[in-house]
Amino acid sequence: MSKQKVTLIAGDGIGPEVAAAATRVLDASGANLEWEPHVAGAKALEEFKDPLPDHVVESIRRNKVALKGPVETKIGGGFKSINVRLRQELDLYANLRPSRSLPSITTRFTDVDLVVVRENTEGLYSGLEHEVVPGVVESLKIITEKASTRIAKFAFDYARRHGRKKVTAVHKANIMKLSDGLFLDCFRKVAPGYPEIQADEKIIDNMCMQLVMYPERSDVLVMENLYGDIVSDLCSGLVGGLGVVPGANLGTHASVFEAVHGTAPDIAGQNIANPLALIRSGIMMLYHLHKDEEAERVRRALRKVIVDKGIKTRDLGGEATTTEFTDAIVRELEVDSNVGPQLPA
Ligand code: NAD
User: Could you tell me if 251 and 93 are in contact, meaning their C-beta atoms sit under 8 angstroms apart?
Assistant: First the structure.
């Protein structure tokens, strides 16, 4: 059988460490992937005078799938975020970020199982900012009927496919009456097409309070770009932190799988980063590629290592280095015993 080509962007900071771990694990799963490595970010700017060269975008277009580590975006000045460009150029309109409590990863909560669906192409991330006069700047929040309807449909379709009970639109339409008002309006028009799923609405500030007090009450949450970015970090804090939460940027023609976390410059190069979030993004990618058997093999290996053997990285209270944790998973994959319940992807 021919290999499935996957564009690989290792990224900056801890990116190369967690990408190396994830590719080792995915290779050991027998998924028969052929990695096509590419450079993006500061290194690409140096080499190609563009932090996101055309050939990188073309590679993803051709392969239709990519695994990506985090890339650095300078605060204030510097080049436009590569993530934002990638999502806009490839129209990766839905960012799916599931946060679930995991056995033996202890937090204050035990039964969190929610999914953030973030609109990925517009909102305040449109990058339309300008100085009106010195001392006054404007940042434009773009909300369109097309993108809002599309993301609402995506959230309800996802809920239907995965047997979810409720979709909550998260908004601030009481203040941003036109922009968030349109987003909410589109959600309300889409919802009746899914009568078996409860359509719920929450103002974002109340939503944040509800999430930290009663996270078990949330199911699928759909929101515009900036809210989705912030709320998904909050949700990762409910289930063990940024080291564990995976993500997928999904479009009609291509998909990019990447963890929620950033480049973690404070721990980069120390072999202590948790590769679990990118490995779990890889599991999402395997399911997307219809490689269910291999995805389940990785889940079994994760369960063995984390739950049965208690091997964890430092961020989860363990002592394993990135390499030790990865070695343990690869060893399990090599002796895949095919028993026991699995960790959710
Ligand atoms: P961050 O996610 O990099 O780090 C926040 C905290 O979480 C840090 O203390 C870090 O050590 C910890 N952490 C993150 N991932 C971890 C892991 N896998 N294992 C253990 N600990 C982990 O957020 P930040 O510091 O705000 O951002 C740093 C850079 O990353 C910025 O340049 C930002 O633009 C970029 N960023 C990129 C992406 C992406 O490429 N998808 C996403 C978010 C942030």
Answer: yes
**Burial group, residue 36, by CB count within 10 angstroms (0-12, 13-18, 19+):** middle
Cα 320 to averaged position of ligand 1 atoms, centre (Å) = 20
Q: What's the maximum distance between 2 C-alpha atoms anywhere in the chain?
A: 66
Active site residues: 125, 172, 205, 229, 233
Pocket of ligand 1 (CB under 6 A): 14, 18, 70-73, 83, 242-243, 258, 261-267, 273-274, 277, 315
Lowest mean pLDDT of 42-51, 118-127, 134-143, 213-222, name the range.
42-51
Per DSSP, the residues of 24-89 read HHHHHTT--EEEEEE--SHHHHHHHSSSS-HHHHHHHHHHSEEEE------SSSSSPPHHHHHHHH
Ligand 1 centroid – CA 141 distance (Å)? 25
Name the residue with the closest Cα to ligand 1, atom 16.
243
CA distance 236 to 239: 5
pLDDT tens figures, 43-89? 888 888 888 999 999 999 999 999 999 998 876 667 678 888 899 89
Nearest to 81 by CA among 258, 246, 211, 199: 258
Angle between the 15-28 and 322-334 helix axes, to the nearest 10 degrees? Answer: 10
Residue 95 has pLDDT above 60, yes or no: yes
Of 45, 261, 280, the residue with max ligand 1 atoms within 8 A of its CB, to mutate for a pocket test, comes to: 261
Q: Could you give the CA distance from residue 176 to residue 198 in angstroms, rounded to a whole number?
A: 24
pLDDT of residue 165: 98
**How far apart (Å, rounded) are the C-alpha atoms in residues 232 and 247?**
10
Q: Which pLDDT score is estimated for 169?
A: 98
243 CA from centroid of ligand 1 (Å): 9
Q: Which atom of ligand 1 is nearest to the CA of 11?
A: 40
Look up tokens 């239709």; give the residue: 64
Alpha carbon 342 to chain centroid, angstroms: 20
